[in-house]
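Give me the fold.
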Amino acid sequence: MKSANNNPLGNMLNPGISDSDIEKAISRSGYPLQTIIANKLRGNFFCQEEWSYLDRNTKEIRSLDIMATCRLFDITERQPRVRPTLNLLIECKQSELPYVFFLSPESIITNSYPNISGLFHKSIKIFTDDSPSTWTMPILHALELSEDNFLINSAPSSMTFSKCVRAGKEIVLSGNESYQSLVQPLISSLLHFDQTERPPESAVYFDAHLPFAIGVLDAPMIGVTVHDNSQETIFLPWIRVFRHESYEHKNSFERSKTYAMDLVHKDFFETFIEKHLLPFASKYADLIIKHDNELAEGRGFAKGLEENSWDNIEKRLEIYSKKKRYSGKFKKCT
């Protein structure tokens, strides 16, 4: 262990504790992985290590390894009413024993992934010219990003995963271990982030945060496909894990949510960020800036929704105007 030039004489290890003991303790703690991942991000992101959040169950203050932020707009140019920002909520885990993921046979789709934070509305109300009806759509659907390849085809999906743990001489699977140490912190931090980024009622300008919950694993990641009487296993560099939860709520749409988080092997992390996440975030940013007024107001206008409300919505989406919306009368029943 090196000593700084101005190190006090009494700043040394006591007898019975070696440099090797300290280095082993550090390597087991997970902090080196956290530091490595933060350093990889710092070229494009501002990184807050040990970012604190309020645990949704215990209401205690806990900390997440990294919260990384990247502005997706040019601060020197005209500021749009809605400014896109990418946020990564990251928990790092090291383990000699594998994580095991039971693979879903098809892609899992949820309106809660990713969840845009920082606006008054999670959806946009769209008026049209050929009907008195209105269409309320999740923002990513209205911007035609909800079926982007990054969200539905880029990684295998899993609703169930476990971590291998030792039970005497045997290796067994522990779902509770993986939930408590990884899923619970990531979901809690996402919910806390969404709460803290709610705009004040007087807001005119907004930040449309795009937060992703990410687990970085320095551990073997194994995917399992289960057949009737057999199973296949494969090593995975990246998987999207989903967690379904139910709530008591007066609004039926709020009684059930499916959260998603991306679990990435440490050796694939840079590829995940540069080749997959950032290209999607760039598309998101362009569309947020293009439709900043519609998103700030929570409403817009699109021609011909009665005739076609399932594709080319973004290309038709524009600022709401009473002059353009449907002005016909209902036909009388005969």
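The helical segments are 19-29, 31-41, 139-142, 149-152, 175-196, 269-290, 292-297, 313-316.
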